[in-house]
């Protein structure tokens, strides 16, 4: 069954009944002008400040627009530093676009299932969201990229997905989409073009906006050098532990996607120093990623990401 045109007023069927408690809960509090957001933003590690771009309307005594994940039926907890764990509704930009913002996301390495990680995306679809802007912190496999660059995603490689952990595995929920959705155009061309225009209008330093392919790994350990070489060899420019499951489910649901990643660290692809005394190799520069470094780098780019996202939304 194709998704109904107006999901807001559509009756939930057997495939979607598990989402009804969440919808009822949110709608019980949301003021009418915010109850059908057209755009959703997911804030990645250290990028929670994106929520500050959202304007919140005056509320009545019985309404609210900010929900902790722990209170929302069906949502799991966010356990990672730099992921506050709240869902915020508001208006964005001069045109006052109604948006919903996930301040912090879920990852499979936290022990959440693929369904739990992507549950919010289906809620977004049922609320009426048409465009998803997904942000995140990434390590760069591409030597032409540098820390602080923004990567406009044009494709992805889903390592868990192609090895049996695609988030769409399970009975098809035909209310949302087709059994075999195409991912050939996962990252919307028009939205990518808008992101470039937005960056130009903000006079961002030329060269700090890149295009690239995101490699999704499950984490939580960072890559070995051999893994990093492999990911680069197969076409990956950046690597991260999120984004892709959300994108796959959003595309499945017919939501257009813009993916923006911040390069927070360079990933070492060079082979380790040989311990063979006969080779007597010199010690190279060693870099070891840490979540602290990731958070510091994304915090340093947070203001720039906020203006970029805000300008993109105004241009859509
Ligand atoms: O992708 P986000 O959630 O921004 O965070 C990235 O940073 C964390 C690792 O430092 C991982 O969660 C990785 O995916």
Write structural notes for this entry:
- It is an enzyme of class 2 (transferase).
- Its EC number is 2.4.2.1.
- Belongs to the PNP/MTAP phosphorylase family.
- The purine nucleoside phosphorylases catalyze the phosphorolytic breakdown of the N-glycosidic bond in the beta-(deoxy)ribonucleoside molecules, with the formation of the corresponding free purine bases and pentose-1-phosphate.
- The chain has 316 residues and is α/β, with parallel strands linked by helices.
- The chain has a single domain (9-268, 284-315), classed as Rossmann fold, CATH 3.40.50.1580.
- It contains 7 helices and 10 strands.
- Strands 6-9-8-7-10 form a 5-stranded mixed β-barrel, surrounded by 5 helices.
- A hairpin with a 4-residue loop joins strand 4 (86-92) and strand 5 (97-103).
- The longest helix has 25 residues, at 291-315.
- The radius of gyration is 20 Å and the shape is globular.
- Residues 1-10 have low confidence and may be disordered.
- Residues 44-45, 80, 105, 107, 136-137, 219, 240-243, 291, 294 line the site of 1-O-phosphono-alpha-D-ribofuranose.
